[in-house]
Amino acid sequence: MCRFFFVEIDQINVDILFQQIINGLVQGSVYALVALGYTMVYGILGLINFAHGEVVMIGAMIALTVLQSLLATAVAPVLAVLVSLLAAMAVCMALGYTIERVAYRPLRNAPRLAPLITAIGVSIVLQNLAMMIWGREYHSFPLPFDNASHQLGGAIVNDVQIGIVVIALVIMAGLMWLVHQTRMGRAMRAVAENPAAATLMGVDINSVISFTFMLGSALAAIAGFMVSANYGIVHYYMGFMLGLKAFTAAVLGGIGNLRGAMVGGVLLGLIESLGAGYIGDLTGGFLGSNYQDVFAFFVLIAVLIFRPSGLLGEKLAERA
Questions:
Q1: Would you state the pLDDT for residue 290?
Q2: Is residue 155 within a helix (H) or strand (E), and if so which, with residue range?
Q3: Quick one: which of 45, 70, 250, 306 has the fewest CB in 10 Å?
Q4: pLDDT value at position 68?
């Protein structure tokens, strides 16, 4: 009887561990997509675009508005989701281009503190703009399809979570192909390696930088849609913490390194999920799962202290 009891307890613990791993992979996939936007911009400009989290939020808000409008006119659910996602990507790409053109390009040769302060200012402007348009309240994000749950081992995973992981993997693979196999990708790598030499070789640096901002913003829109669909809510402040965590993921993997951003995002999601699941046991109930945000910043501090270049190293360090 006692042996059976311990076997049952062990099975429950394994099931909880498996569930937390799945949750971490889902969250980490979102972090990775957002971190890619940070790392691409930093790899080319050496700039931390702290407004990137707000681009995620704007994408989620646009997707919500378009999706609600389409569902009110009895549009097919699949078409409504696709159109709302494309609309969010288009708006975010235009927003990313505008931010780069208006806020960052005039400061490209300024001291590094100037664009950093500008990025924080753009973030605050976008937050307040979203608050004025959509209000302070939380908005429910409608799912026009049945989000069925599935038993996977001892854990439960739903269709949205499966879609998030699969779509994130496909996008990350496509981005690696774009950067390493296309003409624009070669131009991006050339600008990141040596802007002056790239200019002498006929590369239009302004076009490459604008494309990078637009591409990162499109990924941010997709990430915003994923987060909204997974949690079912949208809020004007949702991009701030998500942006900070994605930045932490980029630093963890090695900011300026695409593979590092992917690895860092997934690792941070797993660390946060496992920490939230077991922090109560580790602290004797003193801390609960609501303290999960603490883990991201513990990781950031540890990385900056012990390995500032990140797990996979910073690409710009080679150039320096």
A1: 64
A2: strand 155-158
A3: 306
A4: 93
Residue 297 token pair:
């910043």
Q: What are phi and psi of 269, to 5 degrees?
A: -60, -40
pLDDT of residue 218: 96
**Neighbour count for residue 133 (Cβ, 10 Å):** 11
φ, ψ for residue 33 (rounded to 5)?
Answer: -65, -45
Give the bridge partners for 139, in sequence order: 234
Cα–Cα distance measured from residue 264 to residue 40, given in angstroms and rounded to the nearest whole number = 14
Contact 86, 63 (CB under 8 A): no
The domain spans of the chain are 30-252
What confidence score (pLDDT) does residue 286 get? Answer: 59
* pTM summary value: 0.89
pLDDT beneath 70: ranges in the chain: 1-12, 277-291, 313-320
Task: Report CA-CA distances (Å) from 284 to 17, 53, 287.
Answer: 18, 34, 8
Q: Interhelix angle for 2-45 vs 159-181, to 10°?
A: 40
CA separation for the pair 91, 214 (Å, rounded): 10
Q: Compute the distance between CA of residue 63 and CA of residue 234 in angstroms, rounded to an integer.
A: 10
